[in-house]
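Q&A log
Question type: sequence-to-structure
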Amino acid sequence: MMLPDPVVEEHQGIIVVRDDQIPGGTKSRYLLPLFQNFPHVVYASPACGGAQLSLAYCAQLTNRQATVFVAQRKQPHARTLEAKAAGAHVFQVSPGYLTNVQAKARRYAASTAAYYMEFGGESPEAIRVIAEAAARVKDLVGKLDEVWCAAGSGVLIRGLQCGLEAKRFFAVQVGHVLTPKEVSCADILVYPLPFDRESHYPVPFPSCRNYDAKAWEYCVRFGKGRRLFWNVLGPSPTSFMGLQPRLAT
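Response status: OK
Response body:
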């Protein structure tokens, strides 16, 4: 099963890759193949993280199983509710700090013989898949001055550096404190709001307010020259909630 090539548009003079138009966003590009090798994938997600949604839709598309562990909240985040509606098993964990959520998820994966996915889906295969998608974009847009994206684990920005040609790459840190190794040669800009606080900066396309919208603001305010912005995910609930499962091909 293949996902479509990235959709490229222009907004406010900036080239925008619209991966919000695929179920689960950019992470689905490398998580979908994961389910061809593992029938059950377990993940520990931040409460508003996008990977939980990608896992749910990829599992649904392949008739596999996704299990998500998240911090317990009085009202689960819209992405958690959508992941559950898409068929993921969801376990809420208290206390909800991420290391505890991860520990619970690892134990569950070991007890069920499931595959435990590292934070952000970190793997060489993930970098390769992102690089291939970025290379298809490069064929359309050519050389760039700058490339911008939000960054949690750093998987995306490293993949983009392998597939795009630009003078500078910018990773806008949202949540997880990034190290230089995690972003390769990209510059790190730290967004002041925590991951669970939504941005209200105007974005002219559907964008995740916890994540991508923050990077878009910095791209508009501080970017220069011919820029590309990679939009990972849209807001929840998305238009994919009625998606029907299909057998993997």
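Response note: The chain has a mean pLDDT of 93.
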